[in-house]
Design goal:
The protein has 22 helices and 26 strands. It has 731 residues and is α/β, with parallel strands linked by helices. The strands form 6 sheets. It has an 8-stranded mixed sheet with strand order 18-17-19-20-21-24-25-26, with helices on one face. The protein has a 6-stranded antiparallel sheet with strand order 1-2-3-4-6-5.
Length: 731
Amino acid sequence: MEPLRSTDPARIAGYRVLGRLGAGGMGVVLLGRSPGGALVAIKLIRAEYADDTGFRARFRREVAIARQVRNRWAVPVVDADTEAPAPWLATEFVPGPALSEAVGSGGPLPERGVRALGSMLAEALEAVHTAGLVHRDVKPGNVLLGLDGPRLIDFGIARALDDTVLTATDVIVGSPGFLSPEQAQGRRIGPASDVFSLGCVLVYAATGGRPFGTGPVEAMLFRTVHDTADLSALPPGLLPVVGACLAKEPGDRPAAADIRQAFAEDLAGGSWLPGPVTHLIAERSARMLALPDIDATSLDAGGGGGPGSGSFGGPDTGAGAGSGGRDATAVSPSPGRRRFLAYVTGGVALAATGGSTAWLVSGDDKDPGGKGEGEDGKTARPELHIGLQADLSGPSAAVGKGQDRAARLAVAEHNARGDAPFTLRLTTVDDGGDEDRAKAAVRRFAEDPLLVAAIGATGTDAAREALVAYDEAGLPLLSVVDGDIRHLNRIFLCARPRNDMQMLPVAEFLGAYEIDQVALVDDGTEYGRQTTRFLDAGLRGNGRTVFAETVREGTRDLDAEAERIAAKRPGAVVYGGGWRDAGRFAKSLTRAGFLGPKIATQAAHDPRFLAEAGEDAAGWLLVSTAADPASVPSVHSFAAAYRKRFDHAPPLFAAEAYDAVGLIASCAEELGREKLTRQDLLPALRTTSYKGVSKSYAFESANGMYTGTGVFIYRVERGRFRYIGMNGREV
């Protein structure tokens, strides 16, 4: 990283600019920090190019393209403003070196590392091609290395497969030495072109050289089209796959999925990088801690065990459901560099101890005050509509129905207030966890001019597919379930700690009990990556030994995997994956004789995990962002009101849906406008703070991420989840 220059901005939107990562003809790449402490790489376009309407249109397309690619080995877009005077794009920051730097300074990677690299990059390209795109510039400089795997970056010249305007004959786009023959000749290209480039990258990673040599550009292009690749220094084990990638005819090359499968076995167990590269990444990660501290963020005090509450779950005051509200009291800042230091050093003690058609399914006109009518039958106050996109009939129906009922309870309580300035209406749409129905739900919401915000979705896949539609409608979306950082855009508000930051109490636990050897298991999914990557880097940066393991979702022989992991004698096992495999893995760990601490993530905080694991779930610790209504003191009054109205206890995430309605209503009320639009509400939501019954809520104004520490800790005892604390403190 280079120091900032006098012409560089000190801030971009809500991001504090810390230094330069690079520069090019179109602009500069800067390192920024969000108000919540997350580091991002910001691609800032020079104003003179932004004045070109054609260029701005292309930049909008670049952002849209980058957001379509969703894969753990492709760097996600976290924020952007394509309409700013100097437009910009922010992506997740990866502290590791580019492949070109690692090989250039430390030499080629070992064969196993190259095979792992090939599998993971092929998986990223598979996602690119599935999105209907071609990357067009797969080269060592566009591959960043992380402890858990590589990251494919720079989709700036990616184009859709059906784009004929930007694939004109005689136009060469890409980097000589890593181009396909069809690229070198300026012909129309497809996914096979990226496969050829991947083959060139793997040759470079394994040998330190290019398969078609170096020298003048014209000479390299000629050799790429006419000569056979020089694979004499390539390890024999790599020849079959890499040689096939470098076939001259696109039809003779394997698909990205074939490459991923051919090399997949080299992803299991141990570090995939040689020692010097691992040390370089850890070194750079540690240097990030020395950067300037983040700005303090004022949050509300007390309530639901949120920031400043001083105890698990907040005070059990007996306040009724609906007692949440705004509070301007300034308390300790949101987690910043000091909190991150505690994360990587483990210095704080923790007790060990959501078809293609959507339809309206509810609107409850029987709610007190729901009609908003005076004695003469005329409307006494204006209406404000809130949408709820939930899974009421699919795999997450239990959670979705609980959210619907809790939201209706919040609406009824608001409308019963004599001083409420408006009447709330709730429109609930069942997406069934289906992606097409999720998008149809957004269309239904968008048609209602009085609907100013939505809550949803129950399932992360449905949320992901609906995000573009919400963005197009300019409709704020508040999610209490989804913490995937890839889902950020201008309308999204994440009302829970994001997936990676949920692991903070885990680091604290491991540090408090001086557990130096940790088996960190992900299930090969994006969720698994997000919940383990940051923890992995933090533990290694503190000198701990991490056994980074990938046990892919749906693996049949979990007993063999558990035995292999247990044989390494870790002090603790952390599993980042879904409830079903977590339950099976719990049984396998017991059979393997592992007796140390076992920790799982949000996805395992599900009654189905208990049923799957049976008695082998006993003793497991779980981190979750769901406040258990039966256990967290501040939620008791809400739980009682819910039980009285619906005749059974509220499920997980019901209290959070109740809070979401209260947050939106409180924010709208604070604006004090007779006519309120979606455009009015969105910036207000991102700058509000709200004290709910489950936790306190505040957001990063730049990207809508939750700021706060609302992570609840549970331990499995006697076949149930027993709440034991929040944010690293015991009940």
